[in-house]
Structures are given as structure tokens and as C-alpha cells.
């Protein structure tokens, strides 16, 4: 399988695996989201941008429709923000705070 194929299928598989634990199916509640962040993000570069210990803030950032759960679309936004932050870190460019409550990427000056 090509690398991009793997990335796409992994994102879907991770979401489905954790969203089936409890609560609404195909939605991540706070506990499920916390498990995803703690178990599936190990890189120090990424772990610093979404802190599983501060789950309220992460949940607020991702839950754009304010229903108390994260759907797949909201989860994909989070993954996209993390990917952008990692890209900026790899290329040496800073990432500024986005609209609303987007994640902030620290500038590596």
C-alpha cells in the first residue's frame, strides 16, 4: 500500500476504533478523545500542540458544532492542524494562531 493510502486508512481506522468504545457511535466523547491523544500521538513535536491532560481545551478546539462530541469531520480538522504544525516545524517556519480556537504552533526561531 502506498504511504498516502496508509495515512488515509489509518486516520479512518483510528477514529472508528476509538469512537466505537462508548457513547454515540462514530463520535468521540471526552474519554475517547483523551485515549486517542494519549495512545496515538507519541511524537514530542505533536504532543505539545494537543495536551491530553487539558482535554477540555482540546475538546473545545475540535468540537466546532458544540455538541460535546467530536465527529469525523472535526477529528480530520484536528489531524490537519497537527500536520500543518509538523510541516512548519520541519521547514523551520512558524505557524500563527488561526481563526477561532485553532491550535497554535510555536515558532521555532
Automatic annotation (TrEMBL):
Record-linked Pfam families: EF-hand_1 (PF00036), S_100 (PF01023)
GO cellular component terms, semicolon-separated: extracellular space; perinuclear region of cytoplasm
InterPro entries, alphabetized: EF-hand-dom_pair (IPR011992), EF_Hand_1_Ca_BS (IPR018247), EF_hand_dom (IPR002048), S-100_dom (IPR034325), S100_Ca-bd_sub (IPR013787)
PROSITE patterns membership: EF_HAND_1, EF_HAND_2
Entry superkingdom: Eukaryota
PANTHER family, alphabetized: S100 CALCIUM-BINDING PROTEIN, S100 CALCIUM-BINDING PROTEIN W
Name of this protein: S100 calcium binding protein W
Ranges of residues in domain EF-hand: 50-85
Keywords: Calcium, Metal-binding
Amino acid at each position: 500500500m502506498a504511504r498516502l493510502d496508509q495515512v488515509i486508512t489509518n486516520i479512518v481506522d483510528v477514529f472508528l476504533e476509538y469512537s466505537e468504545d462508548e457513547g454515540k457511535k462514530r463520535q468521540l466523547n471526552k474519554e475517547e478523545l483523551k485515549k486517542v491523544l494519549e495512545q496515538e500521538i507519541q511524537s514530542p513535536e505533536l504532543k505539545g500542540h494537543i495536551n491530553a491532560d487539558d482535554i477540555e481545551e482540546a475538546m473545545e478546539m475540535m468540537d466546532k458544532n458544540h455538541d460535546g462530541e467530536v465527529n469525523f469531520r472535526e477529528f480530520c480538522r484536528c489531524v490537519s492542524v497537527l500536520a500543518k504544525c509538523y510541516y512548519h516545524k520541519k521547514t523551520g517556519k512558524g505557524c500563527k494562531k488561526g481563526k477561532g480556537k485553532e491550535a497554535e504552533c510555536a515558532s521555532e526561531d
